[in-house]
Amino acid sequence: MAREVSKGRKAAVTLLAWGVALLIFFPILWTFLTSFKTEGEAINSHPSFLFFDWTLENYETVNQRSDYLAHFWNSVVISLGSTVLGLIIAVPAAWSMAFVPGKRTKDLLMWMLSTKMLPAVGVLVPLYLLARDTGLLDTKTGLVIVLTLVNLPIIVWMLYTYFKEIPGEILEAARMDGATLSSEILYVLTPMAVPGIASTLLLNVILAWNESFWTLNLTAANAAPLTAFIASYSSPEGLFYAKLSAASTMAIAPIMILGWFSQKQLVRGLTFGAVK
Amino acid sequence: MATQASRMAGRLMLSPAVLLLLLWMIVPLGMTIYFSFLRFNLLMPGTEEFTGFENYHYFFTDPAFWPALVNTLTLVLGVLVITVVGGIALAVLLDQPMWGQGIVRILVIAPFFVMPSVSALVWKNMLMNPVNGLFAALARTLGLQPIDFFATAPLASITAIVAWQWLPFATLILFTALQSLDREQMEAAEMDGAGPVWRFVHLTLPHLMRAMTVVVLIQTIFLLSVFAEILVTTNGGPGTASTTLTFLVYMQSMLQFDVGLGSAGGIVAVLLANIVAIFLMRMIGKNLEA
């Protein structure tokens, strides 16, 4: 009897949870479905959910506009480039703070975090002018540099919280056995640090991919990543919903798949280790 | 414990990150502060001159300033209330035994990964458009008049979009925190005859307090600089109805090319964010001790 009740309760909870989840997911689902409609079908005043003539023409059109692929490539270069560059700078820093902490390590970490609190708009003008004067405006290099610096505190923090969990005794033992610093890093630390570094990479690529302040303000035609490309679709006319949907689907799909793999790291990374 | 040599090596490894961040913080911020005391318009090069606090005076007396400040706070507070209350409800729901919990979680988190320009465009055109949007179609089916969301309630519409994007974040963090709740204590309370409401108020909520604080503080940092959603949907209008501080500074410096004025606004935004940041740093700093 008790079993019956709990099954009924489980069914009710399941129903409610699925209902709410589908409601939250609906705008994405709707975009996905609309991307397979004809433009006429997409603005039909009696929208059809599944029963329409499915077509791939929107994807073809969007892809034929070679600029879509160019923007996609810009997104890849900018998000991966800034992440890798950030890791190169942050790994030694986080390593040293986790394993050779000094009196000021804590203050240093807090200070790094504080640079993240600086609202972007507060430094918009000088960065725009600096980028313009150094010829880095609307270049991938410029955006890679800016996004590296924007996300560096998060990368350092995430790596730090991961490195902190590696037992220091292992390093001590390696040192006792006569390992040099470089072999200590290469053979002892690296294998243990790889999962943390991978998580950091994943989260940071997501953040950089979706970053929408600097990418919109520092690019025009050449280096615009998908965030800026999609924003240019901001037409009030409902003339190309289907194409907008196809472009949107392609812009968010890769990162959403990555994101689903990074649920746990997301919490840890975005709360700077305060919630695990 | 560490040897002198490893200490040296540690400093060496630390310095690139520290130096870069130091430059990153001091140079642009210093320039903004400097510009904020200049009469400096990109359309009139060569006319820069020191004007003291004139830009700040203009910024604070700009008719758009107060609406922008109020809009910023309304947007931030609105999104916070929706995401925290909704996030708690969703986290508790997700925590119940059910079938397909993994998939439900994936669906709920999804909006967080949608880039702001995409979510703004999708909501603006495909859902909220008064002629071709889905909501309009729904309203007509029910025999109601479709609403022109961005004309009648621009700020509320943007709040809804931003809340949709951040609800997953709040849910995910609160759900993670919920999983470390002491189940035995929960069961003991249940045995003692405590009802679900009592347990929620006296056990669940206090346990979530810390995660809630983190959610509020971190979201505030990001919400203070909401930009793409406004740019894509309303451009701050109609009038100043959906202009936030960030957007106001953007308009002054990038559209009116008034670098001095924009810089003064930027400094005001920095000060506002700092007030929030102080609280956040305390929270996280405490965690570092533990």
Automatic annotation (TrEMBL), chain A:
Subcellular location(s) of the protein: Cell membrane
Could you tell me the keywords of this UniProt record? Cell membrane, Membrane, Transmembrane, Transmembrane helix, Transport
Q: Name one Pfam family in it.
A: BPD_transp_1
Its placement in the membrane is given as: Multi-pass membrane protein
Keyword presence, NADP = no
Where is the chain membrane-spanning? 12-33, 72-96, 108-131, 143-163, 184-207, 240-261
In terms of InterPro entries, this protein maps to:
BP-dep_ABC_trans_perm (IPR050901), MetI-like (IPR000515), MetI-like_sf (IPR035906)
Predominant location of this chain?
A: membrane
Q: Where is the ABC transmembrane type-1 domain?
A: 72-262
The record's PANTHER family line, in alphabetical order, gives: INNER MEMBRANE ABC TRANSPORTER PERMEASE PROTEIN YCJP (PTHR32243:SF18), MALTOSE TRANSPORT SYSTEM PERMEASE-RELATED (PTHR32243)
> Belongs to which family?
Belongs to the binding-protein-dependent transport system permease family.
Protein name (record) = Sorbitol/mannitol transport system permease protein
Q: What is the lineage of its organism?
A: Bacteria, Pseudomonadati, Pseudomonadota, Alphaproteobacteria, Hyphomicrobiales
Automatic annotation (TrEMBL), chain B:
By its UniProt entry, which InterPro entries does this protein fall under?
A: MetI-like, MetI-like_sf
One protein family per Pfam: BPD_transp_1
Q: Supply the alphabetized keyword list.
A: Cell membrane, Membrane, Transmembrane, Transmembrane helix, Transport
Residues annotated as transmembrane: 12-37, 68-94, 106-123, 155-178, 208-228, 259-281
User: Per the record's keyword annotation, is Cell wall biogenesis/degradation included, yes or no?
Assistant: no
Task: List where in the cell it is found.
Answer: Cell membrane
- Matching PROSITE patterns, A to Z? ABC_TM1
> Which parts form a coiled-coil structure per UniProt?
none
Q: Where is the ABC transmembrane type-1 domain?
A: 69-280
Chief subcellular location: membrane
Task: Name the membrane topology term.
Answer: Multi-pass membrane protein
Please report which protein family the annotation says this sequence is part of: Belongs to the binding-protein-dependent transport system permease family.
The protein's name: Sorbitol/mannitol transport system permease protein
**What is the organism of origin for this protein?**
Ancylobacter polymorphus
